[in-house]
Amino acid sequence: MSDDHPLISTAITADLVRGAVELERTERGVLPHRLPARARARGADAQVLMAEAQPSGVRLAFRTRAGTVELDALATKRAYRGAPPRPDGVYDLVVDGRLTDRGSITGGNVVTIDMTAGTTGMEPGPVGTLRFAGLPAGVKDVELWLPFNEVTELIALRTDAPVEPLPDRGRRVWLHHGSSISHGSDAESPTATWPALAAARGGVELINLGFGGGALLDPFTARTMRDTPADLISIKMGINLVNTDAMRLRAFTPAAHGFLDTIRDGHPTTPLLVVSPILCPIHEDTPGPSAFDEDALAAGRVRMRAAGDPAERAAGKLTLNVIREELARIVERRAAEDPNLHHLDGRLLYGSDDVTELPLPDELHPDVATHRRMGERFAALAFTDDGPFAAAGARVRPESASSYRR
Predict the structure, then answer these.
(1) What is residue 111's predicted lDDT score, i.e. its pLDDT?
(2) What is the pTM of this model?
(3) pLDDT digits (tens, 9 = 90+) for 12-24
(4) Beta-carbon neighbour count of residue 97 at 10 Å?
């Protein structure tokens, strides 16, 4: 279609959206959520509410002959007082499975966070428009992936040819929960987070429940996973429990069991993979909480440090090594009665051999290259013939596979 062809408006409805758990109808459009309203009402704090409304893994998906696609959206962006401005969130345009273009929407609301004072302020902003032109001719499958790090209210979708919901392609649905590392942290774009990369290599449909600062074994998250249809499930737990100093070992063990029990209430035989933390040198043997390095903040950089005392491990404080050992023990015991439960040591995704080459820029979060490495490794470990998510005729080559551990 030509760029000057009249544009058609299409209502944004649930059948055009993938990766969201719920759509909230607003005065202007719809707001994708990754936790349902009943979960958001169960004591979720401001951090979780912000994270779940950032649409990591959420995309518009449709079939069309259109050559031009426009989206009106209202972004809510974050700014940190004293730190350099954050770049605008990125939208990825995927056509017939290939990334063909990227773009951003400027403007929108801005939430300014003062990490020293612990305060926030909101400055409202305008709706913006994203436009992609020159799409390939003919009928095609289009996915428009939303920014993983901006709350995104979808206002209007326009194209120069009719759209219809993307048909079911027979792919398995992978439901994943984790921390900011799974949410996206410092990935390049929404299709470049490690779960999105792994999903593409594994040929599965992703529902990403990675919540920055929110992987805390919350019962409302477990119930959401219990009630969400899925063919494959994974949980990556540990780092947020340490860096928030949220619980001791005595509380962690039954909480982990309870989280798994709740998921199993809705998915009794679904392949379920428990992933322990990737390597994070500051918290391997030093408990939390994590704290901002004030000298780095003064210099305009975000850098974290471990504020706990290693001696406190004797009183049950959690470190990453403590959590890894306990998770391995929990899964081993449960797997005797649950053959579809599996364990993966997170250091197989990012471990001691990676730190020198790809250090964590702020001591906590992976960068662009590390997301790619983690996505490739997870796919090679989980989706190949001998992995926990194996399927007949696995579509991922084990190019970078290490030994899989259960």
Answers:
(1) 86
(2) 0.93
(3) 999 999 999 999 9
(4) 11
272-275 β-sheet, strand order = 205-210, 173-178, 232-236, 272-275, 341-344
Q: How many Å apart are CA 238 and CA 278, to the nearest integer? A: 9
State how far the Cα of 16 lies from the Cα of 181, in Å rounded to an integer. Answer: 27
- 380-397, pLDDT tens digit by residue? 999 999 999 998 543 443
Are 379 and 202 spatial neighbours (Cβ–Cβ below 8 Å)?
Answer: yes
Q: Cα separation of 379 and 389, whole Å?
A: 9
- Tokens describing residue 95: 């056509």
**pLDDT tens for each residue of 320-348:** 999 999 999 999 999 999 999 999 999 99
Beta strands in 247-328 (DSSP E): 272-275, 290-292, 304-306
Determine contact, residues 306/286, Cβ cutoff 8 Å.
yes
Taking alpha carbons only, the member of 46, 11, 54, 15 closest to residue 30 is: 11
Helix 194-202 vs helix 368-382: angle between axes, to the nearest 10 degrees?
40
Average pLDDT over residues 167-182: 96
DSSP 263: H
- The string of DSSP letters for 164-185 reads EEPPP--PPEEEEEESHHHHTT
Give CA–CA dist 190/57, Å, rounded: 7
